[in-house]
Amino acid sequence: MVGTSAGIVLAIPLPYIEPSLEAYCLVDNPVPIPLNQGHVDSVHFLTVVSRDDETLVITGGNGYEDFFKSGIAPEIPETATCMLVWNVGQ
After folding, report:
1. In sequence order, what DSSP letters do the residues of 3-58 get, joined into one string?
2. Per residue in 22-50, pLDDT tens?
3. Separation CA 89–CA 53 (nearest Å)
């Protein structure tokens, strides 16, 4: 996961790297996937918490932005400090 200065949180899948006798070869080209929710301003922190079978990604920043305008966005002032939590499984 990567947090940007524009408030966007990106999930970047780990590529498969195939070892060979001479060097490691990148088999897949990782493509960043933007999450549908983020912050109005830069992502201030991003952390991962793992426990049992759960993996949570927690981000903090100013405001809340629903990038795909799904209609579920609460009315939060842009200056409010917000924490967003995603359950990304195992």
Report:
1. E-TTS-EEE-PPPPEEE-SS-EEE-S----EE-SEE-SS-EEEEEEEEETTEEEEE
2. 666 666 777 888 888 899 889 999 998 98
3. 7
